[in-house]
Design a protein that fits this description.
14 strands, single chain, 7-stranded mixed beta sheet, alpha/beta, 4-stranded mixed beta sheet, Aspartate Aminotransferase, domain 2, Aspartate Aminotransferase, domain 1
Length: 390
């Protein structure tokens, strides 16, 4: 790379700094939890997706150890070569039962799952319609599929209906179940109704719903009283409420077999370690059995929202653990995040292009492992921050 190219890259980085859009990593130490060592300093954390507090649950650690003792550390190959273990297979069957679907298929990440589904099912003669606030992986999957790609206004079933009435050939509608930056839940019943009326497939990325939303944490589709016939394609992740790593797609037999044959991120990727599959099997049992985790989480959500309203903070319309505080500019969001950091509280500033221009925010996320006292501490520091930076 020549000197002028390096200078061009450096100039672009400096421009990001000036606009308040520069991203920096922080180094954490220790297990995920409400208290986290960040860059050598103990902090109170409100920015993890470990919604049920399972990432550091000792039962998952014991399951990993059993898995390592039986299968070793690495899977050694892709699923279609020699990497598909008995643990992977059992987890797929249990995920299918958990979601009420015929079959499930494991992927190494949620990003890869979304890319795999959309590129395997769609081509140049097809159409994909997506919510404007979908996760980047759905957007990139739609582009990668080479299908005609259109977006409808956020959570607007009428806008979707207008696009569907254009009568394209094969059409797939994709949406987040719980939107990762706003925390609201998609109007799945209305979307399913429109898809049924226009013979379109409906795909739901329920990464932030699985484990948290619906009866026994079975997700936003079940919460909307819909099933596989209404939403034939479900993607869920394992690294959020379930506390492990990886992802899955669940749906009819023919869908899963098609993905096995045609989804390139599945075919050409080494399988996740079997020990992680064993830990996820343990996690699934906890999710089903320990309803108190969701009850505790809902109580903390209500407490936080009431306290934020008292302070006068602008929240999004969210009943989920994702509780964004709207601040507007990227610079203002960074100011608030930096002040909280100085007070020992870790909350990330979310800025464009992750969210639209003018919609930068603090993305507060709550966990069943937080205590009431910790939430009150957060509210107290937010009140002081609001007074100081108003």
């Amino acid at each position: 790379m020549d000197e002028s190219s390096m200078q061009s890259l450096q100039a672009a980085l400096e421009q990001r700094r000036r606009e308040g859009l520069y991203r920096q990593r922080r180094v954490t130490d220790g297990a995920q939890g409400p208290e986290l060592v960040v860059d050598g300093r103990r902090m109170l954390s409100f920015c993890s997706n470990d919604y049920l507090g399972l990432a550091a649950d000792p039962r998952l650690g014991e399951a990993v150890n059993r898995g390592v003792a039986r299968y070793g550390v690495g899977s050694g190959a892709a699923h279609l070569i020699s990497g598909h273990s008995a643990a992977h297979h059992a987890l797929e069957e249990e995920l299918a039962e958990f979601t009420g679907r015929e079959r499930a298929l494991l992927f190494s990440t949620g990003y890869m799952a979304n890319l795999g589904v959309l590129s395997a099912l769609l081509g140049r003669s097809d159409t994909v319609l997506e919510d404007r606030l979908n996760h980047a992986s759905l957007i990139d999957g739609g582009i990668l599929s080479r299908a005609r790609f259109k977006r409808y206004a956020h959570a607007d079933t009428d806008a979707l209906a207008g696009l569907l009435r254009e009568g394209e050939a094969r059409c797939l509608v994709a949406t987040d179940g719980v939107f990762s930056m706003d925390g609201d839940i998609a109007p799945l019943a209305g979307l399913a109704e429109q898809c049924s009326a226009h013979n379109a497939w409906l795909m739901v990325d329920d990464a932030h719903g699985i484990g948290v939303v619906g009866p026994q944490g079975r997700g936003s589709i079940v919460a909307a009283e819909l099933g596989e016939s209404d939403v034939p394609i479900l993607m869920g992740t394992l690294g959020k409420a379930l506390g492990t790593a990886g992802a899955f797609v669940a749906g009819p037999e023919v869908l899963i077999e098609t993905l096995i044959q045609q989804a390139r991120p599945y075919i050409y990727t080494t399988a996740m370690p079997a020990a992680i599959a064993e830990a996820t099997r343990a996690s699934l049992r906890i999710v089903l059995d320990e309803e108190w985790r969701r009850e505790r989480l809902q109580g903390l959500i209500v407490r936080f929202r009431r306290g934020a309203a008292r302070i006068g903070l602008e929240l999004m319309d969210s009943e989920t653990p994702i509780q964004p505080i709207l601040l507007g500019s990227a610079q203002r969001a960074l100011q608030w995040s930096d002040r909280l950091y100085r007070e020992g509280i870790l909350v990330t500033a979310i800025r464009p292009p992750t969210v639209p221009d003018g919609a930068a925010r603090l993305r507060v996320t709550l966990s069943a492992s937080h205590t009431v006292s910790q939430v009150e501490t957060l509210l107290s520091v937010l009140e002081e921050t609001a007074a100081e930076l108003a």
